[in-house]
Amino acid sequence: MSPRESRSPKEKKGTPPPVPAEDSATYHQELRDLQVELVKFQRHLIRENQKVLIIFEGRDAAGKDGTIKRFTEHLSPRETRIVALGKPSDREVSQWYFQRYVTHLPAAQEIVFMNRSWYNRAGVERVMGFCSNEQYEEFMETVPSFEQMIVRSGIRLFKYYLDIDKDEQRKRLSSRESDPLKQWKISPIDLAAQKHWEDYSNARNQMFARTHSAMAPWIVVRADNKDHARLQIIRDFLSRVSYKGKRESVILPDPSTVFLYSRSYLDNGMISP
Question: Of 35, 51, 194, 239, whose CB count within 10 A is highest?
Answer without folding.
Answer: 51
